[in-house]
Write a structure and sequence with these properties.
The structure is a homodimer. Chain A is of the alpha/beta class. Chain A has 15 helices and 15 strands. Chain A has two domains: about 1-30 and about 280-400, Alpha-Beta Complex (Aspartate Aminotransferase, domain 1); about 35-275, Aspartate Aminotransferase, domain 2.
């Protein structure tokens, strides 16, 4: 079948048609379970009515389970970047030192944010596609004149697919008596990050990636020490993202929100978190690991180079380097316009050099087969020498060996 | 019919039942047109895919029509308060003077915000339920040692129902060479506010009130002078809400967003704005005026005192003062628990003293009849002396005189 499909797909006379069946294979927004989509179409609720108050309280409790924490998970009507800003607005003090360790586009957002809030930033700038080494972070901090108030890192760097050793980075930050803030926007709910067990001070996330919801909710799970540090520095410049204001609202019984919550998104979140907990966090992490192994095997079977190491569970997004002589930017465009498969290319300095296949959130085995098959077909269209079905076959062998159907609960 | 209904409703043995048919009569979240709800259940779109890019560009163009401006309407994934914060973060400079004129809970949000960002605030604190007088604003500014950089006011004060004379307040601010920032979160799309014609520097709004969408999108329509003033003061403390960053993204062709947009809410906004423009802004404003007159007539027919003046078109929400000897907080609770009608009570210093009937957004004549009838029944339950049907009759007479069915386009 693969051969037939790939040869039909590779017909150069085939034109782009936006009305063909669509497949969303990006790392945010990610596909939604049908129940999550449908609940947003229900009649809208007043945010202080008992029906919504119950949803809100339950979703907040479920968030604590998914964050693996006893912290109240502070929630904002914002994108994930808004929740990142909350960490910077509450912890960065003008002219006081902080450390940013980055290895991609999203890590650099910490740098931009910390500078916008006037922090004196020491920046460990790792190669995009490599992981930040704990030793290198240790050296960066040692070389700073003054110890940093906070260290900002990224769990899953969505621009390269690299996942960091958050536990080791946390140990380094704590050795220097700094709090650590982890952007886990794409990785939370895909790769294990037991916040309380590892003692991670602040974990940031967003609704639209592994949590299987639309964009529009940002989260900050803030431990006691970070909360105390923020309280020391309440010298203005924050209101909407002020942690203490939101913490005070959420501490009421039932939990309240200082600003009108995005009620349709909370309905969606409640349903999505219910599905994640029904599947079980361990099973969810294992499913992501199997899907990532299949994506990696498929990319290798196509003769492509994987971009980025797969240490620490690079199970969120898999990046493939485009072959020499192929227009890398054309490949995701062909995937989308000819085959209806929306996958992301490279961002920033990786523009036109990689294609990224997402497997975070509501993804199962057949999604990986679709993404790999579309990539194979698009590469063939672009003139690359690929063997139709090689990638799908390699992925199928991974699924067979896993001994389970790596499909999400529905 | 009214008599029968009211006597059945007034049966004191009737118990609360959350499973009865529900009617949302609050001023945010407001009811959504079915098309708006349904579009959020469609498969989610990648924010850089052509299908979403088209929706985003069209919705931004429609926003400009509804704001009656040639400004690019800067948009944020946030509640309306987030968009208010954008104005303060971009215009308020620590220790520099600004003026806040407030006459209710939402006006006081400007005060809290301006102080959080370190501004030296002159505060004109008008009686809740009264309107801010342009002369009083003029005196407040004259008495300041230094002229303010900006004046912050509220168009429709949702906590009291008062709508302000934005045109006159703008003239006062400009006389003192200050820019004016208007919170039009509840009033935009209900009460005429021709931004460019009146020269209003900054108009703030949100998705979840008269714009007939769920909460989660905040808007700032920023004129040239305010934009230039913001550019002078780019000394940190803002990133997510930085106007220049969002303006730069939206100025691209096609418009872009610096952070992942809340794609389901944009789909909803596009549909909702389409309905508003199909009805026509003039017709929308006129419908709100008729509904407000009917609400006021109904409240007077019940023998209640209206709270707040109705100058300048108090057409967003109508507040009724609870009679002496009646537990004011019990009335909206009875409306909700016995009759399934969710209306808001008083906030802050008006807690327990008023009931507010909303008529902003997707509201028509029968919604007003429902709200008035439920209020009448709840008042009877609470022991007040009311004449069943008096309010509905008074509202019907207003509709008859209006010579049109004041119903929204569907």
């Amino acid at each position: 079948m693969s051969t037939l499909v790939a040869s039909a797909y590779s017909d150069p006379t085939m034109t782009a048609d936006p009305y063909i069946k669509q497949y969303l294979m990006t790392a945010g927004p990610t596909p939604l379970p049908p129940q999550v989509s449908q609940v947003m179409a229900e009649p809208i609720a007043y945010h202080r009515a008992p029906a919504f108050v119950e949803v809100h309280a339950r979703a907040l409790a479920r968030l604590r389970e998914v964050f693996q924490t006893s912290n109240e998970v502070l929630s904002f009507a914002s994108s994930g970047s808004g929740a990142m800003e909350s960490a910077v607005a509450n912890l960065v003090v003008p002219a006081e030192p902080v450390t940013v360790a980055s290895a991609g586009k999203f890590g650099e957002r910490w740098l931009e944010l910390a500078r916008s809030f006037g922090g004196e930033v020491a920046h460990l700038d790792s190669e995009w596609g490599e992981a930040i080494q704990p030793d290198a972070l240790d050296r960066t901090i040692k070389e700073m004149g003054r110890p940093p108030r906070a260290v900002f890192v990224t769990q899953s760097e969505t621009s390269t697919g690299v996942v960091h050793d958050v536990r080791a980075l946390t140990e380094v930050a704590h050795r220097h008596d700094a709090v650590i803030v982890v952007d886990a926007i794409s990785g939370l709910g895909a790769v294990d990050l037991p916040q309380d067990e590892w003692g991670v001070d602040v974990v940031i996330s967003g609704s639209q990636k592994s949590l299987m919801c639309p964009p529009g909710l940002g989260f900050a799970s803030v431990g006691e020490r970070a909360m105390a540090l923020a309280a020391e520095t309440s010298d203005g410049g924050r209101y909407y993202f002020d942690w203490s204001r939101t913490a005070k609202g959420q501490a009421e019984d039932p939990p309240n929100s200082p600003f009108t919550p995005a009620v349709t998104l909370w309905r969606a979140l409640d349903v999505a978190l219910g599905l994640i907990l029904e599947e079980g966090l361990e099973n969810v992490f294992d499913r992501h690991a199997v899907l990532a192994r299949a994506a990696r095997a498929g990319i290798e079977a196509m003769g492509l180079e994987r971009f980025g190491p797969d240490d620490y569970g690079a199970n969120v997004v898999t990046a493939a380097r485009m072959p020499e002589g192929i227009d890398g930017a054309a490949v995701p465009k062909l995937m989308r316009d000819r085959y209806g498969v929306t996958a992301a290319g490279g961002q920033g300095r990786l523009n036109g050099r990689i294609v990224r296949i997402a497997h975070c959130g509501y993804f199962g085995a057949f999604d990986i087969v679709i993404a790999l098959t579309a990539l194979e077909a698009a590469l063939a269209d672009a003139g690359a020498d690929v063997e139709p079905g090689a990638a799908a076959g390699a992925a199928q062998r991974v699924f067979s060996r896993a001994g389970r159907a790596p499909e999400p609960v529905a």
